[in-house]
Amino acid sequence: MRHRCFWVTDSKLYQEYHDNEWGEPVYDDATLYEFLLLETFQAGLSWITILNKRENFRKAFDSFDYHKIAKYPESKYQSLLQDAGIIRNKLKVRSAITNAQLFIEVQKEFGSFSNFIWSYTDGKPIINQFHKREDVPATTALSDKISKDLKKRGFKFVGSTVIYAFMQAVGMVNDHTTDCFKYPS
After folding, report:
1. So what does this one do (predicted)?
2. How many C-beta atoms lie closer than 10 Å to residue 41's C-beta?
C-alpha cells in the first residue's frame, strides 16, 4: 500500500488529487487561475469541501475561463449567489470576478500569469524536506511576499495562508512529506 502525506484521508477523490495533482508544477495560466479561484473559495473551509464541489465550480464558472469571468455582468453574479453547488459567499464570488480581471492585467504586464507567479521561485519548485505534520508551515516569508504583492495589485482573498496553499497545489513548493511515495527522490 502506498504511503501518502498525513492530510490524505481514505476518500478516493482526495487520494486521486494528492497522487495526480497536488505538488505537480503548473505553468498553464488557465489551470493557475482555476487553482487561484478554488483556493480563494477554500479560505476558512476544508479542501475536501472544495474538491467535492470542484465540478460544480467548473460548471458555474464557465470551466474557469477567466476571460469570461472577468466580464460577468451583475446578473451572472446574482445567479452565482443562488447556485447551491458552490460556496455562496458574496465576497468570494465577487472576488472571483475581480481576480479574473486582475489576472488579465498581470498577464499583460508579464506576458503570462505563470511568468509572474513563477518568477518568485526562479521558475522551479522549492523542494522542502518535511518529515511530519508539525514541520509543514501554513505560511512562509515567500507566501507573505506574494500575498502582499497580489493585495497591492487589488486581488482579494489572497492572504498568506491561501497563497501558501496555492503554492503547494500548483507545485511552486513540493511539500510531500519525506515518507510519502510522491516525495522526489
Report:
1. Hydrolysis of the deoxyribose N-glycosidic bond to excise 3-methyladenine from the damaged DNA polymer formed by alkylation lesions.
2. 24
The number of domains in the chain is 1
Cα angle for residues 16, 19, 21 (degrees, 5° grid): 85
Catalytic residue of the set 14, 22, 34, 39: 39
- Which residues belong to the annotated binding site for Zn(2+)? 5, 18, 176, 180
Give me the count of residues in the chain: 185
**Residue 40 domain flag:** yes
Q: What does the pLDDT look like over 73-126, one tens digit per residue?
A: 999 999 999 999 999 999 999 999 999 999 999 999 999 999 999 999 999 999
Could you tell me if residue 147 is inside a domain?
A: yes
> Burial, 112: exposed, middle or buried (Cβ in 10 Å; 0-12, 13-18, 19+)?
middle
Active site residue 164: no
Query: What letter represents residue 19's amino acid?
Result: D
Q: Please, what is the angle between helix 47-60 and helix 29-42, to 10°?
A: 130
Active site residue 39: yes
Burial class of residue 129, CB neighbours in 10 A (0-12, 13-18, 19+): exposed
In-domain check, residue 180: no
Query: Which candidate, 5, 8, 11, 70, places its Cα nearest to that of 36?
Result: 70
